[in-house]
Design goal:
The structure is a homodimer of 407-residue chains. Chain A has 13 helices and 16 strands. The first copy, chain A, is of the alpha/beta class and 407 residues long. Chains A, B: Pfam families: ROK.
Chain lengths: 407, 407
């Protein structure tokens, strides 16, 4: 174990991350980038090749000196699995090390009509199916991260309060471990945090310091700083919906008064946009269809719809400005129903941001809308599972049996 | 440069940080901690010894196996210098690599009666004196970080707006470089950010995820996440005082309405606590003395003073709760005038935090009061300057000339 030939995992990790974040490059370039000797960089690349995590791919163009062969991430050896428990569905995704989708499953259900145990049973079944898919293509699953909505006690992996699911003190981590065994690490994470990490695309410098704000009936989200999720002391960061923005305002589902979600959440929009018997307020219809109808009315210039959108956009902007004063992110990425109505909401959100942020030009903070839709949380879960490999590539067993094989 | 014997700086950095954050330990323990081979750890320690950054100190107790000699940071070889430009004074401090104060200077002035150039002249003179002090004890200054209050364009190191100083578009970085030459790196940073990093004591696990909120007439601060300063996209993070907490409330100096500092800043307290001709509102008297008088009145049970403190404490708590919902820090460290009145303010701040935070027990976020007083920003500046050495210890020239010398 203490033999002189074992290469250090901190440097293996640096090399693997550099290839992910900065793209394919030669061994010489890696050495320069990371302050390593050239021979050290070559040794590290060789070890990562042996682990099946990188491969040689083409020749460097346009560099100074002799052309070197390029090294790139080889995604195929390992996969991270992300899963999500939602009031309307359970779902999974498997992403390989280069972020490609290897498998995806989704099962509609109504969590209110099932016990927590029944929901966990169904999710475990989807994970088993996803795991089998991953092994079918010759890859190894390295971890599973499950997203849940609500207040998660992350030390115990217990969902303390899941208001939309109607769950209290459900041991999600232990429940899934009992069903799935311990073939690889399993983590439980707030859904907003996972959605946030999914938006922080590796290698995209404009997406490494972002706020992701997710709007449904509740409003939540996550903070990514320097490409890393900011979880907070006990994992409760990102509860944006319960920032009090209107003292003495409306009562929130949480019992407080004036929470941001009472004025920026889906219910605030629907209450203002339509009468109670209007189909856009019918929870039995698909949210996508109801959002499409609101877009249609707004495009036709319907006064009530436009006024409702303007009112909600103003409040979204108030909260966004408040968070921008505190955090000065490169971008605020609006997700959930906000994304579906992005074109309608953008002008007034940007106006409020300009008005409410002290720094000139809103501190450069851009307003963006998510394009990941409902897959954001599972994608983030898979990315978190893969982080373990980027942290310590030696977690992956050497591919001795596969050398010279079919891959 | 590419010789095989050069040891990698990423691992040198890891070893040096480990000794700073986790305290003295044996080479074997360092190897285990960092996933290095034992021989690699010994080589790295030898290189750091040659650079004068670590030394052998005593023998490990209570470990398993043979006792090993302990390695610890040797602070004496290098110093970071922190400086601050304030409306009432300019000041500097030099801290060695283990955080000990080597020199400290402070010059009272009235920035409103001087030009920006005159203020920079005086600060440059203090820096020269501090630099000389550092060299007198045989250490090498490795960097200077200057804190300024206001909106700093960090890319250009220009203070865009310094409301208290009355400065606009002052090129602080270029101005000091012209005066001081380029003997070592010079940085300019928002004062609130520097105060924040000063509170994040290395090695204190309870102080690595904190919000620091600084209260004078203005309210600002900084965010430390995972021991690192969160500067934001353009360096404007931490403008807490301009979060709008009372829509339709009082007009702020920034032109907006309802900013947090209009209800939590020093002026809000003084307006409520005393008539205009009361000495506690006389800006010609020292703030420390005025705070002492308010404490005295509160302790005597003066109704008006206590009501003013309660009102301000409630608003401090409202903003603290809002930030805690977003960030869930381990602690909120209150600094500036908040610290001077900590005993009076604490109960209502904690009550508001409990009431306003969604997570149970305020998400574990503690309310603390700074003990650094006016030295917070300069201490943070020196710490930032020293970070360059922790990032790359090879920046320090080998101490060949001193080997076998008096040190």
């Amino acid at each position: 174990m203490q033999g002189g030939s074992r290469v250090r995992s901190p440097n293996l990790s640096l090399v693997l991350r550099q290839l992910r974040d900065q793209g394919p490059r030669s061994r010489a370039r890696l050495a320069t980038d990371l302050g390593l000797t050239r021979s050290a960089a070559s040794t590290l690349v060789a070890e990562l090749e042996e682990l099946g995590l990188v491969r040689t791919a083409g020749v460097e163009r346009g560099g100074v000196g002799r052309p070197g062969s390029l090294v790139e991430i080889d995604g195929r050896a390992v996969c991270g699995i992300g899963a999500e428990i939602n009031v309307n569905h359970v779902s999974t995704i498997a992403l390989d090390l280069s972020g490609q989708v290897v498998a995806e499953h989704r099962l509609a259900l109504d969590a209110h009509r099932l016990t927590a145990d029944e929901v966990l049973d169904k999710l475990a079944e989807l994970v088993r199916r996803t795991d089998a898919d991953v092994r079918t293509v010759g890859a190894t699953p390295v971890g599973l991260t499950v997203g849940v909505a609500g207040l998660l006690d992350s030390a115990r992996e217990v969902l303390a309060v899941g208001p939309n699911l109607g769950w209290r003190d459900v041991p999600v981590g232990a429940g899934l471990r009992a069903r799935l065994g311990a073939a690889y690490p399993l983590g439980v994470e707030n859904e907003g945090n996972l959605a946030a990490i999914a938006e922080a695309v590796p290698g995209d410098a404009t997406r490494q310091d972002i706020l992701v704000i997710f709007g449904e009936v509740g409003v939540g989200g996550g903070i990514v700083a320097g490409g890393r999720l900011l979880r907070g002391h006990q994992g409760y960061a990102g509860e944006f919906g319960h920032m009090i923005v209107e003292p003495g305002g409306r009562r929130c589902g949480c019992g407080r008064v004036g929470c941001w979600e009472t004025v920026a959440g889906l219910r605030a929009l629907l209450d203002a946009a339509a009468d109670p018997d209007d189909p856009v307020r019918d929870p039995a219809l698909s949210l996508d269809d109801r959002i499409a109808e609101i877009n249609r009315r707004a495009d036709l210039g319907d006064t009530r719809t436009r006024a409702a959108l303007d009112q909600v956009a103003g409040w979204i902007g108030v909260g966004a400005a408040l968070l921008t004063n505190a955090l000065n992110p490169a971008a605020i990425v609006l997700s959930g129903y906000f994304a579906g109505l992005g074109q309608q909401l953008r002008p007034l959100i940007e106006e409020q941001l300009q008005a409410g942020v002290l720094a000139p030009y809103s501190g450069g903070t851009r307003v963006e809308f998510s394009t990941l839709g409902f897959t954001a949380a599972v994608r983030g879960g898979a990315a978190v599972a893969l982080e373990a490999v980027f942290d310590d590539p030696t977690l992956v067993a050497p591919r001795a049996a596969l050398v010279g094989g079919t891959r």
